[in-house]
Amino acid sequence: MGKNKRNRNKPGKTPAETPATQVARARAWRRYRWAGLIAIAVLVLGAVAFIWRTSTRPSPLSSVVAPPAATSAHATFVGAGACAGCHGRENAAWQNSQHAKAMQHATLDTVLGDFNNIRFTYDGIVSTFFRRDGKFFVNTDGADGRLADFEILYTFGLYPLQQYLVAFPDGRMQALSIAWDARPKSEGGGRWYHLYPNDHITYKDPLHWTRLNQNWNWMCADCHTTKLDRNYNVAANTYATTWKEINVACEACHGPGSNHVAWAKHAPGSEKLADHGLIVALDERRAVTWTRVAATGNAVRSAPLTSERELAVCAQCHSRRAAFASGMDHDGRLLDTHDIALLSEPLYFADGQQHDEVYDLGSFLQSKMHAHGVTCSDCHDPHSGRLRAPGNAVCAQCHAALNYDVPAHTLHMAGSAGAQCAACHMPTRNYMVIDPRHDHSIRIPRPDLSAELQTPNSCTGCHKDRKASWAAAIIEHAFGPERKGFQKFGTVLHDSRIGAPGAAANLMTLARDAQTPAIVRATALADLHPYLSAGVMPALEAGLADPDPMVRGAALDVLLGAPPQERIRLALGLIGDPSTIVRIKAARALAIMPDQGGDAALRVQLDKAFTEYVASQRANADRPEAHLNLGLFYSERRDPKQAEAEYRAALALQADFIPADVNLADLYRSYSRDADAENVLTNGLQLVPGNADLLHALGLLRVRQKRLGEALPLLEAAARADPSNPRYAYVYGVALHDSGQGKQGMAVLERALVRFPGNPELLAALAAYARNAGDTKHAEAYAKRLSDIAPPQAGTEQ
To answer: How many angstroms from the chain centroid is the CA of residue 713?
Structure first.
């Protein structure tokens, strides 16, 4: 597939609109958006669209040129042993890598933990690690909370920690949450520790080691083995998982090697195979050099990077992503198999620094290095996993040491820890308690923004006794006031998160900036969701025509919140998009399209798109989120029987999966099955007492049943249980006001507005109520704040 052309991805055009049509559309938007002001609408939890698990610009991640079919046709996996004979040096480097030891059989040689009857206590549970008959065991709390013996079959990982896997009769393997700290004792290692030390994880918690979110088959296996087949049986809810190799071996990156072996053995016809019958991720580096420019001390690539096959292959594991296809792709079309997490909270700080466990891709995609064509193996040896040079020498491959590896630039004594390039430009953050991982956004520190954006910076990350203003003054004195770095979007994303005036307009500008990395443009579009109105539609339309599929996909996600006619108008032109991620998101947006009438050819195309969407979810049929997505999809397809079955399937996998409870109850509500809705919600509250989502949904049900005396305490409890959700405060305030308690309702809304000063729903409600009460002054003030955040579309009725 060639590089995407902008005109290939434009949404379908519609006839020119008259002024009267524009006014009607604006009115429709207001009715759609603010319906909750009159009647409290059911809050349906949004789809977990995917299940999350990264200057010539390179092509988008799914737009690389695919190899000729002959390179992979009928190719099969042959194992690392078939490669070692000819590729001895690469094999030797790999043998000592963490990839080679990503997963191993539990033996005396591979197990690092102390199993000499060692006891470990966590939240009152005493676990004992011991050996019996040459095997490794742990006595710990099982799925029922009772202590039992569990055999350790595999090690998982190597350094700085090692986890252990337990097999269950239904084919599941589960990862223990008690891990071995493999660091030296001098560094605090040589001990057992819990991965959630402060969270009080019991057997009832979704993060307990026996439960779904610690399941190896889905959560971990594809990135710790080669040629994994999950083999999940939906009907039996069992696994028969297999792999070609127990670790991350040659073919995990290079693809099945049988054709290459045939070429090496001069098999008849093999001379016609492109790339010698092998998908070689490193081909983007062939004959490429980096030449240093004397004036800057920086190097430039001898030829532009026109594809991202290598990055895409690495990113399948080194990213926060959601797979929607079985198996791993080796052709580099990442967005044809995975959806990449955007720079949204809580995954990232507003300026794009890593916050949650996001791995590397999302950070790297926002970097200046990526924009200039740097690839993973420019810095890392792909076989050993080590840096290509020690310390600052790896950066000095492209950045002249005389310019950068000197105290005048580092502001630290030569050879000190603070003088390391990575210390300032790639600071670490600990994950899994003890695993420090570098931020691959490779950014210039911005302590001058830390206070404003509530973001960390590498300066005070080390100098913990100093304020960010101290560091900012030193940097400005050394480099001047204009040295602001490549990532300049932090203020825009921060303002959108707090609802600052002009937030929507700034997001729209950022989303349209072609010089901004695609992942940032996509994030800007995603952050427009709270401000969705007719006024932001031009930015969405531009996003749907963006050359990068990540941006088009983000625009389609936001489009789910638009009125039905807008969803159809804009998504219809993308069901034949060259990128899989865009097609399936377009299909999801078009689920509301009626079946009857229309063009027969279009119906065929829609059915194909819907089939592809369903298949993308069935690929994760062992996860409740996938069934939730299908339930929402079938609800909009007006197929309540299938929707109910999917919600029930989600709850069968995880009985306390709250989104399925809430949406199943809402499905019943829409078909006047209030008794069934009540049973679902009350059963959910028995499993998860005090859950805000369930309390809120049950409160809304009581409103519809005209049992307001019971509804208000439930809505209040929901708002108190989750004060971070402005929607719950909004609904409770509206309910109070509409029940005749106007002052109390206004007070709830005003208190929520202090916490969420830019929330459109709160502002709209307060403006309407103040106006109805004759308080023109406050009504105008609230309306002004609302228009500052999400301005109406030019030319439409105010």
So the answer is: 35
